[in-house]
User: Which sequence fits this backbone?
């Protein structure tokens, strides 16, 4: 498993006593929260492979407040927490519902149970008599699952006031990659104990709290970064380039209508666009082929034709810099087979010379360069004495992963200011030194 990368993405509230006048103006009243990149599989994995790293945010829930760690996921709707109760062992930081005076389980006949969950793949449902609880059952493509009750409690975010929100109080969690109850079966207070759903569904945290804008900036490596909920915008980076959210009103079997879906116009390697037909990059009549911006996914995934074109061009352009792994059967995490073998020092020297890969969106672009293009596979060594590490291109095949969409993951959003502007139906991107942006608020340590 890769090393833990802490991103101490601290956040201030507009009314926080420690905030400077400059910081308050800069953040326009937004609430800032601690965010980190942590070596732990997201509890709600949506892909058919193991996630090694997830973005996590520390919040307080209940009365009196209990500190919990949640995966920040713009690709999921219902927030949920592992709760103390019967079932598999829990991490030490599981939420104790019985200890919160503001906790309330939702009853099955309530509107919240009857219609609020209309955007979930499996809507909430009534438990078998004589119970009157509203149940939630979450199942994911990697065979992970979570079950519990729909509940309500207060969430405290940074220095802001407590806000009420519905969430899943999960008492049974199974991870297909390592057992139930925790991160790969581990029982650690450092593991994520839940998920903060941030998509546009009716039960998402964004919708429930009427958040119309949020921004994050993920620093590269172990530098600090930034997450802002609400506010009137940031002045931490050059002008953002915006791409509109794609809307398809009619339901389609493979189109997620509450995801942050944008239009991919092309993929370039260096200065040249790959010869990929526009039809390959757009959703088809079933909805397959949409492009989603997802903080809950680590890497970026492309449909088969686009992935094949990128793999061929990147391998050809880097032949003098990187030696192909030469093992046709090797596939990292079931979706990455553009892999190489080289000592760490050689890769470090080659990274500045690697061709930049650009995801060209309608009105914006996400550019990936240098060390963000390669990922060292944990535990894999080759050559005499294990002198060579195994590296894979950080773009994978969504078809190999059992998906029908393009997904832009958070690894390729490093040192990019990303704004989700629900008010205007768009997502903005701007290159930024996220560590320096955080330091300007006076807390870069």
Assistant:
């Amino acid at each position: 498993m890769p090393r833990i990368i802490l991103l101490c993405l601290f956040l201030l509230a507009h009314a926080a006593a420690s905030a400077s006048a400059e910081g308050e103006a800069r953040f326009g009243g937004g609430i800032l929260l601690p965010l980190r990149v942590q070596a732990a599989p997201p509890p709600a994995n949506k892909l058919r492979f193991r996630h090694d790293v997830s973005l996590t945010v520390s919040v307080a829930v209940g009365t009196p407040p209990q500190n919990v760690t949640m995966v920040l996921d713009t690709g999921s709707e219902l927030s949920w927490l592992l709760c103390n109760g019967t079932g598999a062992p829990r991490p030490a930081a599981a939420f104790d519902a019985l200890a919160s005076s503001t906790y309330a389980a939702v009853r099955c006949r309530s509107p919240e149970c009857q219609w609020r969950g209309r955007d979930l793949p499996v809507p909430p449902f009534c438990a078998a008599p004589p119970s009157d609880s509203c149940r939630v059952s979450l199942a994911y493509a990697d065979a992970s699952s979570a079950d519990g009750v729909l509940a309500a409690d207060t969430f405290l975010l940074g220095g802001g006031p407590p806000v009420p929100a519905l969430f899943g109080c999960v008492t049974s969690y199974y991870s297909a990659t390592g057992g139930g109850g925790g991160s790969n079966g581990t029982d650690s207070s450092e593991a994520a104990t839940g998920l903060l759903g941030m998509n546009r569904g009716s039960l998402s945290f964004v919708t429930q709290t009427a958040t119309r804008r949020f921004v994050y900036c993920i620093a590269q490596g172990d530098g600090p970064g930034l997450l802002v909920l609400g506010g009137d915008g940031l002045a931490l980076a050059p002008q953002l380039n915006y791409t509109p959210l794609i809307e398809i009103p009619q339901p389609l079997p493979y189109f997620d209508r509450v995801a942050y879906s944008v239009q991919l116009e092309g993929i370039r390697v260096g200065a040249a666009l790959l010869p990929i037909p526009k039809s390959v990059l757009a959703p088809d009549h079933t909805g397959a082929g949409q492009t989603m911006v997802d903080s809950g996914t680590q890497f970026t995934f492309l449909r088969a034709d686009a992935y094949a074109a990128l793999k061929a061009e990147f391998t050809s352009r880097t032949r003098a810099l990187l030696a192909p792994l030469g093992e046709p059967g090797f596939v990292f995490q079931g979706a990455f087979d553009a892999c190489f073998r080289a000592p760490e020092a050689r890769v470090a020297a080659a990274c500045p010379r690697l061709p930049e890969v650009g995801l060209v969106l309608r009105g914006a672009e996400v550019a990936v360069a240098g060390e963000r293009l390669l990922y060292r596979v944990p535990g894999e060594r080759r050559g005499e004495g294990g002198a060579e590490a195994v590296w894979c291109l950080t773009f994978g095949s969504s078809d190999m992963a059992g998906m029908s969409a393009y997904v832009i993951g958070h690894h390729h959003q490093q040192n990019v200011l990303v704004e989700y502007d629900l008010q205007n139906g768009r997502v903005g991107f701007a290159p930024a030194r996220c560590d320096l942006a955080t330091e300007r608020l006076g807390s870069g340590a």
Q: What stands out?
A: Confidence is low (pLDDT under 50) at residues 1-28, 40-52, 177-190. The helical segments are 21-27, 111-114, 205-208, 278-281, 304-317, 344-350, 434-439.
